[in-house]
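Supplementary notes (optional reading)

For those who missed the lab, this is the record we used. Protein: Cupin domain-containing protein. Length: 180 residues.
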Amino acid sequence: MLLALASTLQASEEPPVNYPDRATVIENLGLQAHVEGGYFKRTFQADDRPKVDIGDGPRYTMTSIYYLLTADSPTGHWHLNRSDIVHYYHLGAPVHYYMLHPDGHLETAVLGPDLAAGQQLQLTVRGGIWKASHLPQGDYGLVSEAVSPGFEYSDMTLGERAPLLDAFPQHADLIQAYTR
């Protein structure tokens, strides 16, 4: 009887997963255009806890968003966040990340489902590191971000091409590709 059950379990296949299309993701998650590129929606702010003072005013201890890059908005342009951010892959095509450290070191990562190919499900980017993201192929890539202390637009700097080129001339191609 156990052999019959084991053979039945091996023969049964999981039904294929129906992934939503881009329009469904944007509509069902209530995403809006983001200033960096792509789409987003804040999904959480720790308003049940006391805020923390970072010197420029109080911040939530943590905030979280959905962030979506699409074929028609494939770039998250260079920006610098004051807070630490943990990114989590959810759906769609892999999203490529580029991080420029203050010393000029370039770090790259790919968030996606293919762990055997070196893709990651999670990526932490510390505050003070320039970051850009890109969807090189596919219709969309959906991630979430947890930000601590919580995100405020006043804590983010959008990258401008000339100052970034002055600071990191060795990475001119990436800076030109991911600045407006």
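If you only remember one thing from this example: Residues 34 and 125 are 19 Å apart (CA to CA).
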